[in-house]
Amino acid sequence: MTREPIDPAMNHPGKILMIDVGGTNVKLKVSNNDELRKVPSGRQFTAKEMVSQVLAVTRDWDYEVVSLGYPSLIEEGKPVREPLNLGGGWLDFDYEKAFKKPVRFINDAGMQALANYAGGRMLFMGFGTSTGATLIIHDVIVPLEIGLLRLARRGQFMDRLCKDYLKGQGRKRWMRNVQEAVAILQDVFKPTDTVLGGGNAKSIDPLPAGCRRSSNSDAFRGAERLWPGYDMLAEPYGTSWRITHNRPFPASSPTMAEI
Q1: Are 29 and 217 in contact (CB under 8 A)?
Q2: Coil, strand, or helix at residue 193?
Q3: CA-closest candidate to residue 151, choices 143, 138, 160, 142
Q4: What tens digit of pLDDT does each residue of 145-201 get?
């Protein structure tokens, strides 16, 4: 299914509810409100449970549309693969019927990448329950499946960069893996900007060369950029997204070359 193109000149749709689905928590934020709410997720967590808990936790919030960061593959703006770290029932669920609002999807790492995008070639790496990455190349968003890539003699990214490894093996070993993984992807993709985010990004100290850190709260800018009326608009195209700019980047936008 292919969507009709969205007119970037359209007014934005009103208040947005951001739902950022993770393997440990679902993070929630709404327009014009600095509060970040959470509901616990986990390996048995289903789409039906997610919607039920989100509606309960946000019953005092007003919003007109929903932006949903989904932790698996999206194609033409719809989920096409079940999340690896959650329960089932995510593909056939009718989200718009359940929320009674328009819903737009993007890969969860893609939403954080979109939030931090400042032009050029940007690599985003997310460190949370598992690990994910997204590359944005001159306004084309490409989520990357990096979990099966291997570190030299130390196993796969998904096993060595995850929250369980950090807790079980300690920050020193985990940091060594982070430094190596970042260097590998920087060498392959040659980004002008590298952003590290996710719940465990705060544990990355020192930052690898040429990197900057984002926080989970930054993701809301990505949720906004899925709808018309903001500084840029991302629209699904196959398994990628294309960005349209409504106003130029500020001169102070950070890039790796400036760090």
Answers
A1: yes
A2: strand
A3: 160
A4: 899 899 987 799 999 999 999 999 999 999 999 999 999 999 999 999 999 999 899
Residues ≥6 apart with Cβ < 8 Å to 62? 15, 30
3-state secondary structure of 12: coil
Give pairs for 209-216: CB < 8 Å, separation 24+.
210/186, 210/256, 210/259, 211/182, 211/256, 211/259, 212/254, 212/256, 212/259, 214/112, 214/115, 214/116, 214/124, 216/20, 216/27, 216/36, 216/112
Q: Which amino acid is at 54?
A: V
Output the pTM of the full model.
Answer: 0.89
Coil, strand, or helix at residue 162?
Answer: coil
Which residues touch 141 (CB under 8 Å, ≥6 apart)?
Answer: 106, 110, 113, 114, 134, 135, 234, 240, 241, 242, 243
